[in-house]
C-alpha cells in the first residue's frame, strides 16, 4: 500500500471513529436526560403514594398499624433512593410516629 493510500485510510478511519464516538456520546446524553425525567416522575408518584397513605392514616383516626408503617417505609426508601427528601421525609416520619392502635 502506498503512503498516500495509507494516509487516506487513516483519515477515513479517524473520521469514522470520530463520528461513531460523537453519535455514542449524543445517544448517552439523550438517554441520561430521559432517565432523569423517568426518575423525577417516579419520585413524584412515590411522594403522592406517601401522602395518600398519610391521608388514610388521618382518616383512620391517626392510627397506622404495622403493615401500614412497613408499606410507608418501603415507599419512602425507594423515594429516598431517587433523591427525594424534605416533605417525603416529614410525611413518612408522621406515619412512623403514629400509634398502632387506639388507646383503651
TrEMBL record:
Keyword Membrane part of the UniProt annotation: yes
This protein's UniProt keywords: Membrane, Transmembrane, Transmembrane helix
Membrane-traversing stretches: 6-28
Origin superkingdom: Bacteria
Name the UniProt record assigns to this protein: Phage minor structural protein
Amino acid at each position: 500500500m502506498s503512503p498516500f493510500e495509507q494516509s487516506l485510510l487513516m483519515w477515513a478511519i479517524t473520521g469514522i471513529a470520530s463520528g461513531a464516538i460523537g453519535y455514542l456520546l449524543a445517544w448517552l446524553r439523550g438517554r441520561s436526560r430521559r432517565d432523569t425525567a423517568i426518575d423525577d416522575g417516579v419520585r413524584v408518584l412515590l411522594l403522592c403514594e406517601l401522602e395518600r397513605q398519610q391521608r388514610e392514616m388521618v382518616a383512620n383516626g391517626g392510627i397506622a398499624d404495622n403493615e401500614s408503617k412497613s408499606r410507608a417505609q418501603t415507599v419512602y426508601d425507594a423515594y429516598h433512593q431517587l433523591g427525594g427528601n424534605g416533605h417525603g421525609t416529614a410525611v413518612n416520619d408522621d406515619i412512623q410516629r403514629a400509634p398502632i392502635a387506639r388507646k383503651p
